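Practice problem 4.
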């Protein structure tokens, strides 16, 4: 028992100095869209005194929701915040494409002129963002007031939590250029995996496997694959010691069967690609502390939220892509 514990500690120590190489030049370049989005958020901050990262958090949430749903028109401009045309111009407005601020107000529409060009256009990013800001301003600009405003707007606790998490991440890094990823284990580790999505599972009743199993030795570090914030940490009957991270694109990453956690990682901790969050183990399938009922491996799951509900999808293609990208990055060093 003592020999195994020493080996586990040594393995964790050896791999703890292997960050994701892809994160080294993370913020060295920005796309034109990212620059324009930041400029827009900053301008709206100056106009409303609401911090830019709140606008970024809301916009990113709405962008992810629009990508995940088929009943909402796809995003065309920089801003992802969605207003239905009828909501924008007013319930009884005979002109569904009305851009006159006065008539829109007369018919009870929400659309406002955010850049003083005399129009309140649903296709104008500044008008859309200012319209949203106008609603939130009624509740205040400090964190608690902002959360109240978000709840009144979305009527969904989960939406409020996701947006505040996004804002915290953007505030921490000072940029919206946070789309890099990293493979979930150090590439120098001895591991193997295949697509196990949909396989049958029997413990706790017949069910399908919603994830990918990555087999590796006890104590191999498990890394965050993206920028995100820790939503859940602790014991689960099926997943054992597990941790859940919501990334900036509103995808929930589920890491299960860990042997232990990185002690510095707690609920609310902001993580980045390559940051160690725990270590491979074989915990689960029983009460807290149960371990050894199966070979050591990491169960990695991904879940997408569309603003109404959340569902699992196959993480295998993403894992292979991140693994390949990191190997290419290492070869360039």
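Answer key:
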């Amino acid at each position: 028992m003592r020999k195994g514990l020493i080996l586990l500690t040594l393995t964790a120590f050896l791999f703890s100095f292997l960050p994701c190489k892809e994160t080294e030049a993370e913020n060295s370049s920005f796309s034109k869209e990212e620059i324009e989005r930041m400029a827009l958020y900053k301008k709206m901050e100056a106009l409303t005194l609401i911090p830019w990262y709140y606008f970024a958090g809301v916009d990113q949430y709405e962008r992810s929701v629009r990508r995940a749903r088929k009943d909402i028109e796809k995003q065309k401009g920089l801003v992802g915040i969605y207003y239905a045309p009828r909501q924008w111009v007013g319930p009884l407005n005979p002109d569904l494409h009305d851009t006159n601020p006065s008539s829109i107000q007369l018919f009870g529409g929400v659309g406002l002129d955010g850049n003083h060009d005399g129009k309140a256009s649903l296709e104008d990013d500044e008008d859309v963002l200012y319209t949203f800001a106008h609603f939130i301003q009624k509740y205040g600009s400090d964190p608690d007031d902002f959360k109240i405003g978000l709840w009144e707007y979305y009527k969904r606790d989960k939406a409020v939590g996701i947006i505040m998490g996004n804002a915290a991440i953007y505030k921490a890094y000072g940029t919206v250029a946070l789309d890099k990823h990293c493979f979930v284990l150090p590439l120098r580790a001895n591991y193997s995996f295949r697509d196990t999505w949909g396989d049958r599972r029997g413990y706790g009743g017949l069910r399908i496997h919603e994830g990918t199993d990555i087999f590796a030795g006890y104590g191999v570090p498990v890394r965050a694959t993206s920028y995100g914030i820790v939503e859940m940490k602790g014991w689960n009957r099926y997943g054992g010691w597990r941790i859940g991270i919501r990334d900036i694109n509103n995808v929930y990453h589920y890491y299960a069967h860990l042997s232990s956690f990185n002690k510095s990682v707690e609920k609310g901790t902001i993580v980045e690609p390559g940051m160690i969050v725990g270590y491979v183990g074989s915990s689960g399938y029983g009460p807290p502390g149960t371990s050894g009922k199966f070979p050591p491996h990491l169960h990695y799951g991904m879940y997408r939220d569309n603003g109404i509900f959340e569902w699992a999808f196959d993480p295998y293609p993403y894992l292979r892509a991140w693994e390949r990208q990191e190997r290419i990055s290492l070869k360039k060093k």
